[in-house]
């Protein structure tokens, strides 16, 4: 792993100023179950790591009359075991409970589960998201593709999301509130 700057904001408003101008220069650390592996394998080598674990307003499950809010730092274990959430959104609780091992679920966050990088062997080996050979052809299609889920995709990317909760959130019609250098926005 390479040396990096480390920041640990306590308010979400502080995060935007700590994010860099381009992908890969700055990484956000929450649970760390995916990111730390990528850093150890030098798939990503950020210049700065922004630890958001101390931002309390990003934690927790808040179930209102017609709305469910789940903080990005809420662990999959918390989602899986929340009794009220389990009654109102049983498939979400089940998906969170089926993710990985109990040890991982106790660290992995909802935000991290949604944002984790693909499990593509070529990507994890440093070939990038589109994994092309020197001839410009897709390594996934033309190379060793034993570990891929191509599923008739017309490309250019031939991987699936590793998120266990994303398909359930889509089925429930959920939206995600994103905070970045340009402010807050929602995405369905």
Distance between the termini: 35 Å
Number of helices: 10
Which strand order spans the largest sheet, edge to edge or round the barrel? Answer: 1-3-2
Element order: H for helix, E for strand: EHEHEEEHHHHHHHHEE
- Helix/strand/pairing category: alpha/beta
Number of strands: 7
Q: What kind of oligomer do you see? A: single chain
Q: How does this model look, in words?
A:
- The structure is a single chain.
- By secondary structure, the protein is of the alpha/beta class.
- It contains ten helices and seven strands.
- It has helices at 12-18, 35-40, 76-81, 83-88, 90-98, 102-105, 110-115, 121-127, 139-142, 166-171, and strands at 5-7, 26-29, 48-51, 61-63, 68-70, 176-180, 183-187.
- The strands form three sheets. A three-stranded parallel beta sheet has the order 1-3-2, with no helix packed on it. It has a two-stranded antiparallel ribbon with strand order 4-5. Strands 6-7 form a two-stranded antiparallel ribbon.
- Strand 4 and strand 5 (68-70) form a beta hairpin.
- The protein is globular.
- The mean pLDDT is 87.
Briefly say what this structure is.
The chain is 32% helix and 14% strand. The chain has ten helices and seven strands.
SSE topology:
Elements: E1 5-7, H1 12-18, E2 26-29, H2 35-40, E3 48-51, E4 61-63, E5 68-70, H3 76-81, H4 83-88, H5 90-98, H6 102-105, H7 110-115, H8 121-127, H9 139-142, H10 166-171, E6 176-180, E7 183-187
Parallel strand pairs: 1-3, 2-3
Antiparallel strand pairs: 4-5, 6-7
């Amino acid at each position: 792993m390479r040396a990096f700057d480390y920041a640990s904001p306590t308010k979400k408003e502080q995060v935007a100023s700590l994010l860099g101008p381009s992908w890969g220069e700055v990484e956000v650390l929450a649970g760390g179950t995916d990111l730390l592996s990528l850093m150890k394998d030098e798939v990503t080598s950020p210049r700065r790591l922004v630890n958001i674990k101390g931002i309390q307003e990003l934690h927790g499950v808040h179930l209102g009359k017609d709305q469910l809010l789940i903080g990005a730092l809420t662990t999959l274990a918390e989602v899986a075991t929340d009794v009220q959430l389990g009654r109102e959104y049983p498939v979400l609780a089940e998906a969170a409970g089926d993710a990985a091992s109990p040890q991982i679920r106790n660290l992995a966050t909802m935000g991290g589960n949604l944002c984790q990088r693909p499990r593509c062997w070529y990507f994890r080996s440093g070939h990038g998201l589109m994994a092309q050979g020197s001839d410009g052809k897709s390594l996934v299609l033309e190379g060793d593709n034993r570990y891929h889920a191509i599923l008739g995709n017309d490309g250019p990317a031939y991987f699936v999301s590793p998120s266990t909760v994303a398909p359930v959130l889509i089925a429930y019609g959920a939206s995600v509130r994103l905070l970045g250098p340009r402010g807050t926005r929602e995405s369905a």
